[in-house]
Amino acid sequence: MSGKKTEQLIYEVYNxxxxxxxxxxxxxxxxxxxxxIYLQKTDDVHLLTTSLSHAGIHVDxxxxxxxxxxxxxxxxxxxxxxLPYLVVTAASARNLDITxxxxxxxxxxxxxxxxxxxxxxxESTERVYSFAIPTKxxxxxxxxxxxxxxxxxxxxxxxxxxxxDKHALKISTRNKQRKSGPRSKPLQNKKPKLxxxxx
Length: 199
Fold this sequence. Notes:
By secondary structure, the chain is an alpha/beta fold. The chain has 6 helices and 7 strands. It has a 7-stranded parallel sheet with strand order 3-4-2-5-6-1-7, with helices on both faces.
């Protein structure tokens, strides 16, 4: 599965530090002079794009709410080198030809094995850096399945100069004052998502 030239690294980091780590890596790693950055949710794409832009980084985004012309223009600008950083949702990127993309950062580890294969096996891709939640068992279920498939563990890396939290951020619900006024209706339970075949 490994691409001939593709460097593949795993950075273990908790969710609340992911966006901060992306920005740190862009500013401190000379190899990441450009990158296509993948997330799962459109809201997170907006959040990261805004954060990078405020930091003076030239960036654009591709997501489900962007029209096809806008997507094509942003991708073409990135491949041409005029747009160093492009933040995308994984779902929208499945319809794109990423030939010409040099570096990829998976802020959210891919949900589908085929998404990761596409990234790694694209001829132009030199680096695929993926974030994974630190766990005793060594990462997400798909990451573990992927390592079992290739019968090897991906090398773990840390970003020099970045201070990692050693524990997950937990929001305490103790001693919260109850708001005055009528009680709100309880949220309905969400229906469980169906697992896609091939995971």
